[in-house]
Design brief:
Strand content: 25-35%
Order of helices and strands: EHEHEEEEHEEEEEE
CATH topology: Purple Acid Phosphatase, chain A, domain 2
Radius of gyration: 15 Å
Number of domains: 1
Largest sheet: 7 strands, mixed
Strand order of the largest sheet: 4-3-2-1-10-11-12
CATH architecture: 4-Layer Sandwich
Number of strands: 12
Shape: globular
Number of helices: 3
CATH class: Alpha Beta
CATH superfamily: Metallo-dependent phosphatases
Distance between the termini: 15 Å
Length: 185
């Protein structure tokens, strides 16, 4: 099973399309960790900013999409999305893995680990910072897929992540290069 992990698209249709046509090609499921349609008052409007078109693209995604609410998401977004925006968590069981998804705003690293342990989740997926990260802490793997739309970090690059073949991988969306990989077992 192949699962795409994405966060912080902020209304950028082109970022979604690059993920769907690149690393997420053939995915069985996509988990979105929030900040889906709106760029937010503190973020610049991205060149691919097209929230209605992004909503349509998500609705016709080749793989089912599970969405959690980010700090820039609002109730009105649900009017254009066919998939429900889970708030604030989604718990997904797949092929022996339990994955907990949350936007990550308002949670410390330690709180994320504690939540994952409470739900016996192998993977905790979050976003919010726009900085990609992949880290094993004991029996929990923390995955921040970064942002394909408004990347931050050093250097800032558009990223997503994939769970496949017993591992989580961070992927540079521009080059398709795997930046980091962690085994899930």
């Amino acid at each position: 099973m192949k699962t795409g992990l994405i966060s912080d698209t902020h209304g950028d249709l082109s970022a979604w399309e690059k993920a769907i046509n690149g690393p997420f090609r053939g995915a069985d499921l996509i988990l979105h960790a929030g900040d889906i349609l709106y760029h937010g008052p503190k973020n610049p409007m991205v060149p691919g900013y097209a929230p209605p078109a992004l909503a349509e693209a998500i609705n016709r995604s080749p793989a089912p999409v599970i969405l959690v609410r980010g700090n820039c998401d609002s109730d009105v977004d649900q009017l254009v999305l066919d998939y429900p925006i889970q708030a604030p968590y989604a718990l997904v069981q797949m092929e022996g893995l339990r994955v907990l998804v949350n936007h990550g705003d308002g949670l410390s690293r330690d709180e994320m680990i504690a939540q994952a342990q409470r739900y016996r989740a192998t993977v905790f997926v979050f976003g919010h910072t726009h900085i990609p990260g992949l880290e094993r802490v004991g029996d929990v793997v923390l995955v921040n897929p970064g942002s394909p739309a408004l990347p931050k970090g050093a250097p800032p690059r558009p990223t997503v992540a994939v769970i496949e073949d017993g591992a989580a991988r961070l992927i540079d969306l521009a080059s398709g290069q795997t930046l980091q990989e962690v085994a899930l077992t």
